[in-house]
User: Which sequence fits this backbone?
């Protein structure tokens, strides 16, 4: 199938339409009108392909749709929404998965957005986290999907963690497990007690929701050497688990506290927090 720049064709028609109707809409109104025109364009007959943009993609096989998407990304020809809509409508995954084998970030983002939460992709998602072929944004997108299905993928997350791979990603996934098991609690607790990435790992304990973590969080928050950010995360975790910490602490010399105070002042919204939290 020939690669067609439908967005380019739409832009040409839009420029003509805007010229003919330049006095009919304000700039703000055009922001609402243009998406409606684009949607209408999807059902407009295009002589160049002898059908509408939607029909053009509807006639393709699953393999052709994926090949067309890959070619758009490879050649920097804008990807039409009509192409993505057709792929999403079919719920096709098998032909999209190979797009995650490379290291092109844009291709991966498109593939992940189109595949979404389909369980057939979970194994590939774990591979992305383990191999670190993509940047942080791509891996965070994958983690967001997997942690939403934490109970379904808990054994995979456990196995990967035991391998020593992508540990903090696995901790984040395991922290969202609803069917509690001691092995997961102890993994999260030991990770917290290691003293590494304390604010983040305190948040994992809070997310997991096992109040047995409270004494360990309380012990850590009593440490007078911790900074404002760590203190705040620990305090949040303690409260999330039903505990309470009210002892005043002075962070007036803490750079992170001062940065928060300056930012709040610049927005004209200095909160109730004072250096004595």
Assistant:
């Amino acid at each position: 199938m020939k690669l067609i720049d439908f967005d380019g064709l739409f832009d040409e028609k839009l420029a003509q339409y805007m010229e003919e109707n330049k006095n009919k809409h304000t700039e703000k109104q055009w922001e609402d009108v243009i998406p409606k025109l684009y949607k209408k364009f999807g059902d407009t007959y295009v002589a160049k392909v002898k059908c509408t943009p939607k029909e053009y993609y509807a006639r393709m096989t699953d393999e052709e749709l994926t090949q067309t998407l890959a070619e758009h990304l490879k050649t920097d020809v804008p990807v039409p929404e009509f192409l993505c809509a057709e792929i999403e409508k079919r719920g096709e995954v098998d032909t999209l998965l190979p797009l995650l084998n490379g290291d092109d970030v844009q291709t991966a983002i498109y593939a992940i957005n189109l595949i979404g939460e389909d369980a057939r992709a979970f194994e590939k998602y774990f591979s992305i986290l383990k191999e670190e072929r993509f940047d942080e944004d791509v891996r965070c997108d994958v983690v967001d999907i997997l942690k939403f299905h934490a109970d379904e993928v808990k054994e995979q997350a456990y196995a990967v963690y035991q391998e020593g791979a992508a540990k903090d990603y696995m901790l984040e996934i395991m922290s969202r497990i609803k069917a509690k098991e001691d092995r997961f609690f102890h993994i999260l607790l030991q990770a917290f007690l290691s003293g590494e990435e304390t604010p983040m790992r305190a948040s994992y304990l809070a997310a997991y929701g096992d109040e047995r973590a409270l004494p360990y969080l309380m012990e850590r928050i009593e440490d007078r050497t911790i900074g404002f950010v760590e203190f705040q995360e620990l305090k949040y975790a303690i409260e999330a688990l039903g505990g309470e910490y009210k002892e005043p602490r002075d962070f007036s010399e803490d750079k992170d506290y001062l940065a928060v105070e300056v930012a709040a002042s610049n927005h004209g919204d200095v909160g109730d927090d004072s250096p004595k939290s």
